[in-house]
Amino acid sequence: MSETESGTAAGEDTRCGFVALIGAPNAGKSTLLNALVGTKVTIVSHKVQTTRALIRGISVEGQSQIIFVDTPGIFAPKRRLDRAMVTTAWSGAHDADLTAVLMDARKGLDEDIEPILEHLKEVRGPKILILNKIDVVPRDSLLGLAKAANEKAKFETTFMISALKSDGVVDLKQWLAERMPTGPWLYPEDQIADAPMRQLAAEITREKLFERLHQELPYHSTVETEQWKELRGGDVRIEQTIYVERESQRKIVIGKGGQTLRAIGEAARKDIAEIADAKVHLFLFVKVREGWGDDPERYRAMGLEFPKG
């Protein structure tokens, strides 16, 4: 029996805790989460504000189980959906054992990160700073940036990483593991996320949707997994519906002769098959659902609290 197995089986000397990843949109939180967990558990897109709900990625390091909360990017909210996402992000930080602030080293102390550092004063518990994308920033500027950020908020320590290349991720993970509270693990050893597979599959398709149509499609679109059926032989049949707000958007998603929808489906199928560890038969449908951005039920489905007003 391995050291990890013996520790978790006996419930001795194990650690388990929550780490909230917060930052401005496109700081690289989802990319970092996937690197920390070792597989895709959350949507990664060049289009900002794509993470909507708190998606927990679960990672094991030695005797520690670290539950990462990938929060929506924090930004100035304009719409009802925006307000729900920002509220959700800060709630994730307030509830965590440790808050990790991810900062895009290329952008530095800009108008996106400044209010986040200011708001951190209201967050109890330890906080660390993670400078991301250091592979594309001159080394001599990183120390100055770290010093300036630490003057604005009280951080226990600072890590410099490249989430995309996984540089520095191992050291970060080991440091976090040592600082998790003592206690039993909350999830089985082989579980990588607490979001159900249906939700993860929907997130993957939404990622491919944004990758393909990042210019034409607004944020008011969503994907729901309507059916997940395990077939004989281990294959999985999945039916998903892409909801948009207008007929013109539906036509964009389908594309000429259905080409766009087929391309989205094929890209999504490959990634879903990887996390499902099975051959996947994916069927996509596109429907118009006007005003879904003001429907409380849709917010609850995404794990967001419906903001009033």
UniProtKB/TrEMBL annotation:
G5: region residues: 161-163
Pfam family, one: MMR_HSR1
GO biological process: ribosomal small subunit assembly
Sequence ranges assigned to domain KH type-2 in this UniProt record: 213-290
List of residues binding GTP: 23-30, 70-74, 132-135
Signal peptide range in chain numbering: none
Gene Ontology MF: a single term: small ribosomal subunit rRNA binding
Region G2: start-end pairs: 49-53
Parts forming coiled coils: none
Topology in the lipid bilayer: Peripheral membrane protein
Subunit structure, interactors included: Monomer.
Function, as annotated: An essential GTPase that binds both GDP and GTP, with rapid nucleotide exchange. Plays a role in 16S rRNA processing and 30S ribosomal subunit biogenesis and possibly also in cell cycle regulation and energy metabolism.
Family to which this protein belongs: Belongs to the TRAFAC class TrmE-Era-EngA-EngB-Septin-like GTPase superfamily. Era GTPase family.
Name of this chain's protein: GTPase Era
Organism: Undibacter mobilis
Gene this protein is translated from: era
